[in-house]
Structure formats: structure tokens, C-alpha cells
Write a structure and sequence with these properties.
mainly alpha, two-stranded antiparallel sheet, 4% strand, 106 residues, 66% helix, 3 helices
Length: 106
Amino acid sequence: MTYAQFLAIFLLPPVILLGLALRRNLSRRLWLTLAGVSLLAVLYTGPWDNLIIVNGVWTYGKSRVWGALIGHVPVEEYCFYILQVGLAGLLVSLLLARLGERPWDT
């Protein structure tokens, strides 16, 4: 299985389903929050992953990734960071919405 297939099978569907379940509760503030946290995840985790790849601690099989890199890290890894933030953020938002809470609207 390639990294892109993993993302398409295990992360993209739940993110899409959560987005659909929350379509009436998705505010601009929530999207901005998720974008901000995604940016933090990329800025914090990207350098760390570059460091461990350069030092040989972690590798990605060339047949498992597209080959496009940002530094030494495959683009799919950056997609993983962003999709994980989306998954966690949307799941928390759904759980809060079920409790009648809408912290993103305040």
C-alpha cells in the first residue's frame, strides 16, 4: 500500500464524513482554527521529520511515496499532518455539537 492510498482509505473518508455531518455547524471561525492548527503542525513536525530522515532514523520506501519532497519529507507526510488535524478537530466539533456546545461561534 502506498502512503497516498493509506491517506485515501483511512483518513480522507472520515474527514469527509465528519465534514458532511457538521455541514450546518461549520463556521468560518472553525475553519480558521483548523487551518491555524494545521499550520502549527506542519511548522512544528516538518523540521523534526526532516531531521530524523537526514539522520537515517526514519525512511520512506521510494515505491510507497509519490517522490515529491519538501526538504527530505514526502508530500504525503505533510498531507497526513493536515488530515490528522482535520480529523481530530472535526471529531471534537461533532461531539461538542451533539452536547449542544458551539464554541466556534463565540
